[in-house]
User: What shape does this take?
Amino acid sequence: MKILSIETSCDETAVCIVEAEGGVESPSFEVLGNALFSQVDLHKEFGGVFPSLAKREHAKNLPALFKKVLAEANFLAEKDNDYSENLWKEIESILIKEKELYPSFRNLLNTIIKPDINAVVVTEGPGLEPALWVGVSFALALGKLWGIPVIGVNHMEGHIASVLMNPESQKVDFPALAVLISGGHTEIVKIDGWGKYKVIGETVDDAVGEAFDKTARMLGLPYPGGPEVSKLAELARTQNIPQVAKLPRPMLHSKNLNFSFSGLKTAVLYYIRDNFAGKYENMTLDNKADLAREFESSVLEVLETKTVEALDETGAKTLIVAGGVIASSKIRETFFGLETARTDLKVRIPEKSLATDNAIMIACAGYLKILNEPTVLSNPQNIVAKGNLKYKVVV
Ligand code: KG4
Ligand code: ZN
Assistant: This one.
C-alpha cells in the first residue's frame, strides 16, 4: 500500500510517500518521494525552538513540500478539479486553526488529480502542540478531500520504527528494547511485539539531547548544539588533548532505569564558573574540546550502564537505539559495541539521516499500526495534536 506521511512535531517540516509491503513479521518499505525542511537557522537566534514560529513556518512550507514529494513520486498530475463549495467549507473548518493554510491548500489541491495513495499518516504527538496541529490539520483536510483514511501515530514509535528502513538489519526479534535519545525524550522501552510498548526507564528531568544543547550554549556553540559538542569531543579524542575536566555520572548507581541530566548540565556550568570565571570566552579550543569529551563520556557511561541493566532485566534479543542523539558517531559506535560483547544480541540503529526527525519513520510506524489494527483504515480516528502523547498499547 502507498502511504503519505507528515511530520511537524518540532522544527522539521517533513513529508514523504512510501510503498509499504509485507506482514508484521517482515514489513518492507520503498521511499517513493521524500522532502524535509529544517527550520534550524530560524530558531538559532532564540537558542531553541520557538513554538509559534515553528507553527508559522510549518504552515508556510508544508504545501510546497507536499507538492515536491508528489512530483518526486510521479504522482503529480495537474487538472482543474470541481470540488463542491460545501466540501471546501468542511475543509476550511478542518483548517480553522491554520487560517493561513486554507488558501494555499485550496489553490494547490484544486489543481491536482487525486493520486493512488491509500492512507495519510501523521504525527499526533508528543511534541510542540501548535506545531503538531499544522500537520494534523493538513492530514485531516487531505483525508477529507481525497476520501482516504488518516492515521495518527506517536512520534516516539516513529523513532523506534526508523530501524525498519535498513534492509541489512531489518529483523527485530522480541522481546526487544528501545533506547530513545532525542531532544525531547530519553527513555528505555520494552517491546514485546510491534504496538506493545512499556516504558521501563526515563529521564526525571532533561532529555539527553537537551543536555547536549544546553552544554553547547554554555560553550558558546550555536543551536542545535548536540552535533557541535560531539564534534568537539571527537577533536579531543583524535588530538589526544589532555584530560582535565571531570564531571559526575548522574544516577549511575541508582537502583532503577531512570536518568537525570539536569545535574550534569549544572556541573558543566560550575566547571566553567570555577575554572574560567564563568565565561566560555576565557576557554581555549582545547579547554572546550576537553569539556565536551568529558560531557559526552559521562552521558555515554550512564546510557550504556542503564542499557546493559535493562538488557539483563528483560532478556531482550534486539536492542534498538534511536532518536536524534544517535547521530553522534561515538554514541553509535558504543551501542554497536554491545553486539560484540553480547553474542545473543542484535543491535539496530537507524542510519544517520533517519536518526533525526523525518517523515519516513512516521510512515513506517503508521504501517505497523495499520498491520496491528486494520480497522484504523475503515473507522475514522479522532486525531488531535497531543503534546504529551504516551504510548497507547501498554503491556
Ligand atoms: O529526534 P530529534 O531530531 O528531535 C526530537 O524529537 O527531539 O533529536 C534532536 C536532538 C537535539 O537535541 C540535537 O542536538 C541532538 O538530537 N543531536 C545530536 C547530534 N545530532 C543531533 N546530539 C549529539 N550528537 C549529534 N551528532
Ligand atoms: Zn524526534
Remarks:
- The mean pLDDT is 94.
- The chain has two domains: 2-159+355-377, 172-349.
- Residues 172-349 form a domain with the Nucleotidyltransferase; domain 5 fold (CATH 3.30.420.40).
